[in-house]
Amino acid sequence: MTGRLIPREAGIHPPLFTPAYKTSVLRSPQRALIAFDSSPSEETGPTFGHMKLGALDNDLLLNYARPGTSAIGERIIVHGRLLDENNRPIPNALIEIWQANAGGRYRHKKDGYLAALDPDFGGCGRTITGEDGSYAFRTVKPGAYPWPNGPNEWRPAHIHFSIFGHSFGQRLISQMYFEGDPLIARCPIAQTIPDKAALDRLVAALDMSETKPMDAIAYRFDIVLRGHRQTHFENRPEGM
Amino acid sequence: MVQKFDKPILTPSQTAGPYVHIGLVPEACGIEDVPFETLGREIAGPEAKGDRIKITCRVVDGGDLPLRDCLVETWQADAAGIYPGQEGADPAVSGFGRMPADFTTGEITFETIKPGAIALSGDRKTPPHISFWIFARGINHGLHTRMYFPEDDLSGDPLLARIEHRDRIATMVAEATGPGEYRFEIRLQGAGETVFFDI
Ligand SMILES: [Fe+2]
Fold first, then answer.
1. A137, A153, A209, B79: least CB-packed within 10 angstroms?
2. How many CB atoms lie within 10 A of CB B31?
3. Using one digit for the tens of pLDDT, what is the confidence trace for B99-136?
4. What stretches of A1-103 show up as alpha helix (H) in DSSP?
5. B104/A contact by beta carbon, under 8 A
6. Which run of H or E residues covers position A97?
7. Does residue A106 carry a catalytic annotation?
8. Could you report the per-residue pLDDT of A167-178, keeping only the tens digit for each?
9. pLDDT of A128-162, one tens digit each?
């Protein structure tokens, strides 16, 4: 699906300058972004549908674990569908995730939090969406962790998501939170999103229907990317 | 009352955070035995047609400090100006690059081929350019800009024509530093702030 991209709706994405999230202060442009109709440079994009995935690429319980063991923590399934804003599924699209372990510690040389590393948990996974836009990961629920934005600031449990549509202009990076977490309302990063309904989009719901009894709790997280304009009455020569 | 659109709300963006490397370039942050290979390493394979070029870039914050924890993704056409996936595209060009800044210097260096001019409607063309998408801790929504080449005539570009402050166009033009070598500095804020797009 290509063609002109629908302009981003105002008020959904966070502004770039959000002083309560201190790092944004020196990393945000002061000039207005230049808006423009999409062109082939934004309407095309890398595709990964042909990529050969390993059997455990979307299974963070096992993809870094030593043989015969699995990662420590609350076992969860995160699943959902990738759609565009016209409610159409986006198939064959790459979703990559990364997260802290159950104690809130990242396997990253710059993370010095005193929570222990789990030798059986790496913290990254990826998958390609199915024909109906569906995807699923198996992992552990990440722990909350402190960060130095304020004297006593804690990130709510979250999983980082990187998503490709079929157009470079659809590229999105975001974070998924968990239903019922009291830290979401206190988090300066989550609260960069001004619209309550938009922030709710990032909160995955407990999904008992996909929960595997005696095994793993499921959360459902649907993702919606920009869509392409319908082609009625398009004054546009072939090949654009 | 009117009919209600049944349109879902877009998923809002959040910062990639400081640990983005784990998911997107795991070997860069000290993860051994990475479960899978990193994407976007080869933008143009050895068989790709066109002039080979080398680009060094840096992303600098409003306090003049290079970002040492950012990632850059690039997207470009082949030497004929055709994007991968379009009919007739050079099969040796993936067009997609993903590069982390060096943890010490903040530098990002990559090799590719120079893209061709891109055909638009009618007989208009956009001069050769590489699209950049920059994300990091402190950036709430990926920043989109383009890198143009100093040797090209940019006067016919409809996108650049939209920019009212003409002196800002120079912020998107790389500097030639040698044969086939360019330097591109992306300034997030303040004097010489790079032009960023909402496209
Ligand atoms: Fe995080």
1. A209
2. 19
3. 999 999 999 999 999 999 999 877 889 999 999 999 99
4. 40-43
5. no
6. strand A94-98
7. yes
8. 999 999 999 999
9. 999 999 999 999 999 999 999 999 999 999 999 99
Q: What is the mean pLDDT of residues A42-47?
A: 96
CA distance B189 to A16: 11
Q: How confident is residue A238, by pLDDT bands cut at 50, 70 and 90? A: very low
Tokens of B23: 């998911």
Instruction: Note the ipTM here.
Output: 0.96
How far, in Å, CA of A78 to CA of A15, rounded?
28
Which residue has 């570009």 as its token pair?
Answer: B157
What's the CA gap between B134 and A156, in Å, rounded? Answer: 25
Question: Which among B159, B148, B154, B145 is positioned nearest to B194, based on CA atoms?
Answer: B145
For residue A64 the two structure tokens come to: 């870094």
Amino acid at B28: A
Tokens (6 digits) for B48: 């790709």
Q: Does B180 touch chain A (CB under 8 A)?
A: no
Closest Cα in chain A, distance from residue B181 (Å): 23
**B83: which 2 tokens?**
């994007």
Residue with tokens 């050079």: B90
What are the backbone dihedrals phi and psi of residue A83, each rounded to the nearest 5 degrees, phi first? Answer: -125, 165
What residues have a C-beta under 5 A from ligand 1, the ion? B 17
3-class SS of residue B176: strand
Q: CB of B176 within 8 A of CB of B184?
A: no
CB contact under 8 A, A16 and B139: yes
Look at residues B188, B112, B107, B27 and name the one whose alpha carbon lies nearest to residue A122. Answer: B27
- Residues A67-117 pLDDT 10s: 999 999 999 999 999 999 999 999 999 999 999 999 999 999 999 999 999
- pTM for this predicted structure: 0.96
- Region for residue A68 given its phi and psi (left: phi exceeds 0; alpha: psi -120 to 50; beta: otherwise): left
Can you tell me whether residue B21 is helix, strand or coil? helix
Structure tokens at A161: 């998501």
Active-site annotation holds for A13: no
Say if B75 is an interface residue toward chain A (CB within 8 Å): yes
C-alpha distances in Å from residue A217, one per residue of A206, A208, B68? 8, 7, 38
Q: How many whole angstroms from A159 Cα to the centroid of ligand 1?
A: 7
At A44, give phi and psi (nearest 5°): -85, 175
Q: Residue B87 has which token pair?
A: 């009919």
Q: Which residues of B touch A230 (CB under 8 A)?
A: none
